[in-house]
Amino acid sequence: MTSPSPSHISSLWKGKSKAADDDYNDLNPIITYRHLLSSNMRVKDPLRVVALCDSDAFYAACEQVRLGIDPSRPLVVLQWESLIAVNYPARKFGISRMAKLKDAKQLCPELVVVHVATYKEGEKEPGYWDNVDTRTHKVSLDYYRRESMKIIDVFKEGLPTGEIEKASIDEAFIDFTNPVREILLARFPYLAHVPADAPNGIDTQLPPPPPISWEKLSVVVPIFPGTEGSEDQPESSTKGHDLDNGAQEESDEAPTWHDVALSIAAELMEKIRDAVRTKLGYTTSAGIARNKFLAKLVASYRKPNTQSILRNAAIPNYLRPMAFQKIRFLGGKLGEAIANEYDVSTVGDLLTITLGEMQRKFGENAYWVYELLRGIDRSEVKEKGSQNKSMLASKNLPQPIINATDGHHWIRVLAAELALRLNDARKTSPTLWPKAVVLHARKGYQTARSKQAAFPFTRNLTVDVIASAGDRLWKELVGESKIIKVTSIQLAFTGLETAESGQQSIETFFKTPDRRQQLSPNNHGEPTLKRVREEDLDDALPQMVALEGEESTSCTDASTSFICQRCGKRLHLADSANIDINGDGRVEALQTLRMEHNDFHFAQDLSKTSDEPQEDSAKKKKKRKEPEGIAKFFNRK
DNA sequence: GGGCATGAT
DNA sequence: GGATCATGCCC
Predict the structure, then answer these.
(1) Which of A228, A350, A354, A437 has CA 20 to 30 A from A597's CA?
(2) Chain CA centroid to CA A43, Å
(3) What residue ranges in A121-238 does DSSP mark as E strands?
C-alpha cells in the first residue's frame, strides 16, 4: 500500500549511504484515505501515535503527597544509606541520586529526608519508622505499587479506547492511534469519505492538512536544533533562540497529517496528565512520537512536568547526535559490544554500517538495532494484565549468613511478605495463583543460584506453606555445607495467573470442595464473587494461624467450630473475624474454614519432602499474644 | 520446566 | 547500589 513494502528492507534501504537523509527515508510516507479509514493496521499505520508517560521522581512524589508536603520543597527518599529518589526542587541544589546523604544535607540544609517504608520486627504491616536498620528491617515498596496502580487507573478512565501498557512502576506506554483517528475524522469530516473525483479512489492521497497550532503546553523538538551544544540542556537559553530559529525553519517543513495526529495526541495526553495531577497530585512527563522507542526517548527531552513532541521531520537531527547507549536495550552489554567494535558513540556514527555487516557481527539483534537507529520500531503497545507475572521479595544481607540454619529467619520474613502481598492481590483477583516458588541465593561473590518448585493451589495461603517450600529450596541450594556466606536471598512467586484465564488451573480451582456452586455461575456477574472474596480471602493468613490454636476457649458450639478428621483438632471461627453478623455469614464462614483447613493439609502434604520438622503452627501456640502478620517472623533479641 | 543471563527503573 | 520486574537462551 505505501510505496515501500515495509516488511522488506531491501526496498527500504537500497544500499545508499551517502546522502544523510537516505537513512531516514520513511519519515514522510504518503497517507491515503485507506490509511485513515482502516483501524487495524497496527504498527504499519502511517498515522500511528504513541506516548510514554512517566512520573517525575516517582518515589519522592509519592512521599511528598503522602505527607502532604509542599511540592516545592526539596525532598529525597532514602533506602538505607542511599538516595533512591530526588525530587526536582532538590535537584536544583545539585543533589543527585548518587550523592551521599551527608553531602545532600550539606548542599541543602532544609532537605526533607524520608526513608522508604520497611517491615520491622514486632509490627504487622510495613510502616515508616525512625531508626531503620538494614540488619533487622526489610524494605517494602508496596505503597509505591499501589500509587502506581492508581495512576494507571486514571489513565484508563481518560482513555477508554486506547491501549495502555504499564512499562514499569512509574511509566506507561499509550497507543493513541485509534482515539486520535476518531477525533481526526470528527474534526475534519471531509476526510471521512473519498471525494468523487479522487484519481485513485480510496488509495488517493489526503488533501493537504491545515496549519497546526501546537499545544501550548507541549514542547516540540525542533527540526533544526541550535548549532550550539546538545538539545538536552536543562533550561538553558533555548527559549528565545529556538523560537526565532526554530519557528522560521520549521515553517519550511510543511505539516503532515501525522503531525496533526501528534498534536491531537498531545491534547489527549495533556488532559490525562492533568487528571493525574489534580486527582492524585503527581506531575508527569511524556514523550509523543510515532513509536514506542521514540516516545520513550523524547519523554526525557524536557522534565519535569512537560510533554515533548517529536515530529517525524525532527527525527534525523534528533537521533544522529544521540549517544546510542542511551537507547533502550542498548544500555547494557550489547551497546558496549557495539561501541567497542566500532569505537563510536553516537547514532549517526553507526548509520554508515551496513545491515549485512551488523548481522555478521551481532546476529539476530542486528536487524532490530539497524532499524532502531533509523527511528523504526515495530513493537506494539500491548495491554498487560493489571497484575504482574511474578512477585518477588528480596533482601541483601549486610552481614552474610554463615550457618545454614540461619537462613530460615529471612526466608520466613520473605515468605510472610509474599503471603501478605498475594493475599492482598487476591482481594481483586480471588483466584490468583503462582505456578512456582523460586529461591535465589548469592554466596559471597559467586553469581546467584536458584532453585524452584511447583506451588500448590491453595486458597488458604499461609506463611507456613510458603516458608516450608522456601526452606526446602534453601537446603537444595546450600546443601550440607556448614559454612556458607550468603549475601543475598530472594523468594519469588512466578507464573502468577488468575484461574479464569487458564483451563488447567480453573479445573484445579473448581475441584476444591464445595466451591463449585458459589463461583462457577458467575463469570462476569459480581455479587457472589464479591462476598466470597471479602469474607474468605481477607486476612486468610492471620486468621489461619489464630484458628489453629487449641486454646480457643470462646464457643465450642457446632455452628462455630468443627473437628478435622485429619488431624483431630477442633477448628473455631475467630471471634475477631467480621463474619458473625448474621447466621448466613457464619455458615458460609465455617464452610470456608473447613476448606481452608483442607487446603492447608494438602499443601503440607505437597511440601513434605522436607526433613525439616513441619512446624505445625498449633504446636507453638503457647504464647498468648503472638504478634500478628509478618511481625512474628522477626527475631526478637 | 528449570536455571541462568541480561536489561530496565 | 538495593529491590523488583520481564524476557530470552539453553538444556
Answers:
(1) A437
(2) 23
(3) 138-139, 163-168, 171-175, 218-220
DSSP H helices, A347-456, are 347-350, 355-362, 365-373, 407-425
- What is the C-alpha to C-alpha distance for residues A93 and A82, in angstroms, rounded to an integer? 17
Question: CA A117 → CA A40, A126, A382, A427, distances in Å?
Answer: 45, 6, 32, 22
Q: Would you give the DSSP letter of residue A527?
A: H
Q: Are A54 and A285 in contact (CB under 8 A)?
A: yes
Q: Calculate what percentage of chain A has a pLDDT beyond 90.
A: 54
Please say whether the beta carbons of A107 and A94 come within 8 A: yes
Nucleotide at minimal C1' distance from the A170 CA: B9
Whether the CB-CB separation of A303 and A283 falls below 8 Å is answered with no
Say if pTM beats, i.e. exceeds, 0.85. no
Question: Which bases of chain B are under 7 A from a protein CB atom?
Answer: 1-9
Q: Delineate the domains of chain A, giving CATH numbers in brackets.
A: 6-55+147-372 (3.30.70.270), 59-141 (3.40.1170.60), 390-498 (3.30.1490.100), 508-609 (no CATH)
- Residue A26 reports pLDDT greater than 70: yes
- pLDDT over 90 (residue A23): no
Residue whose Cα is closest to the C1' of B5: A447
Which residue's CA shows the smallest distance to C1' of C6? Answer: A389
Host H or E run for residue A308:
strand A307-309
Amino acid, res. A32: T
How is the beta sheet containing A82-86 ordered, strand by strand? A82-86, A75-79, A112-115
What DSSP string describes A92-115?
Answer: TTT--TTSBHHHHHHH-TT-EEEE
